[in-house]
Amino acid sequence: MSNTFWGMEITAEQLLIGFGDTLYMVTVSLLFSALIGLPLGILLVITRKGHILDNTWVFNFLNPIINILRSVPFIILLVAIIPLTRIIAGSAIGTTAAIVPLVFYAAPYIARLVENSLLEVDKGIIEAAQSMGATVPQIIFKFLIPEGLSSLILTFTTATIGLVGASAMAGAVGAGGVGDLAITYGYQRFDTMTMIVTVAALVIIVQILQSTGNMVSKQIRRR
Amino acid sequence: MIEFQQVTKSFQTKKQTVDALKGIDLTVEKGDIFGVVGYSGAGKSTLIRLVNLLERPTTGQVIVDGQSLTELKPKQLRAEKKKIGMIFQHFNLLNSKTVFDNVAIPLVLSGTPKTIIKARVEELLEFVGLSDKEKNYPEQLSGGQKQRIGIARALATNPSILLCDEATSALDPQTTSAVLQLLKKINQQYNITILLITHEMSVIREICNKVAVMEGGLVVEQGSVFEVFAAPKTEIAKNFVRTVIHDEIPQSVLKNVAISNTHPIIWKINFVGNTSSQPLLSTIAKKYDVHLSVLSANISEIQEKPFGNLIIDVTGDSLEIQKALTYIKDEGFIVQEVDLNNE
Ligand SMILES: Nc1ncnc2c1ncn2[C@@H]1O[C@H](COP(=O)(O)OP(=O)(O)O)[C@@H](O)[C@H]1O
Ligand SMILES: [Mg+2]
User: Which residue among A86, A155, B17, B331 has the highest number of C-beta atoms inside a 10 angstrom radius?
Assistant: First the structure.
């Protein structure tokens, strides 16, 4: 009990490791979800009727898949895809294993948010691009994304916060992280102080993420 | 330069088919400032968007510079589009980019080297009078300034055609005038053909040399601006002309004419430029045995040239009247007989 403080049952080291695990899960799963979600979101926009790559087939294929994935609560998704998690991560339990369901959860979420952000971009801008003879990739990278950037930043802020929350839930399957500490010590062992500290930590993390996101987005918009 | 041949365009919506264009034949000559005027929903935007294939015609051909754009491969089409600039009612500038980058973007798209871009953008900004705004963002500019940037951007790739979709409709009258003068300068200085659409006849009057009037997806009247302003044929063209040129005969004057003569002969004479009506009237009075009385006279402007509008009541021997009429026509004035019952 020598390293514990504030009457908590956990040591400062455990708390630090918890933070590290959370950070690891959130960053890695954010990276993969963005790699999948961003292109999907763009596809959802440009394959829409009347848009630059109008394609009913692709749109009508992607749209329901994303809807279905989006409608499954994370805690169920976590359990439901365990076999898949085993194949991809080699194990169903642990911090790295948690990344698989986290990506399944966040990628469609990001796709939807990206779609919404890019739909906000004025159609007139796309028209101007088309009138200049811009290619499809040029329209995406030189018009759509720069014009939607401020909104995209908020999108990724929301997604990151969603991942912090989900990663805490992943603690239920022994994924580690701040959430795991809260469940194992705070909830199961009635360690109120640990509960308070971990919850406060999560609140602070979310606050910092949100205000950073808002600030960056605003800065871009104000230009 | 731009030729519409039997062009139709239908939009398929969930509920119905909208026939936006129902058979357009129109030719815009090189060097024209061609104006298309019509009420909202007439099909003007659809028409102009066919020129750079923002819309594809349902049937018929749009031929630009001798080429039918619909037959081009995507790559050729993109190259062709660089010869057609376009400006928009709501400017459509990128809010995330500076004025410099906005003007540069068409050049960036075609992979122009940076040093050339810099020189060209500076030249364009100078031309539109906004060199000092290079580093600003569109949000920091007024509507008129934004449209100037739109114009600079449209000119970046040295186009031979400029399309203007209600380019001044979001601007106040003074700014409108300034932007129109800029368009005129572009037309004259760079010999760029301009096709513009508008719902304001004053825009046509100020800079166009030719005009087409659209209604319900059809061109119902077209001709030189002078012709159409002097003698509009269709009801809709008359209404449009009336919005800028007031040539009605005052009611009280009409009454007096009707009292003194049950079948008065009334002529509407139009003249343009510095020819004055005064020598004309006195010459006629001297040469022919007719009496003339002026019912209404006013001078307005078409393309900054005086445009006179004279309505006179003519009495006298019918043979003499006929001779006088021939004389006026031979002198190059446009004369129309006014039927009072239709006024
Ligand atoms: N993309 C579209 N889908 C369906 N209907 C359209 C579309 N674009 C234009 N229309 C219809 O075509 C007609 C002409 O529109 P438009 O060319 O915009 O007229 P204007 O520019 O003269 O106001 C209108 O009835 C309009 O509703
Ligand atoms: Mg329109």
Answer: A155
ipTM over 0.90: no
- The CATH code for residues A17-221 is 1.10.3720.10
Range 117-146 of B in CB contact (< 8 A) with A: 137
B109, B135, B141, B147, best to mutate vs chain A, most A CBs in 10 Å: B109
Per-residue pLDDT reduced to its tens digit, A158-200: 999 999 999 988 877 778 888 888 888 888 888 888 888 888 8
CATH code of B2-244, in short, is 3.40.50.300
Q: Is the CB of B62 under 6 A from ligand 1?
A: no
Identify the band that residue B278 occupies on the pLDDT scale cut at 50, 70 and 90: low
Homologous superfamily of B251-342: ACT domain (3.30.70.260)
pLDDT tens per residue across span B283-309:
888 888 998 888 888 888 887 778 888
User: Which residue in the block uniquely carries the two structure tokens 């540069």?
Assistant: B104
Q: Do A130 and B96 touch (CB under 8 A)?
A: no
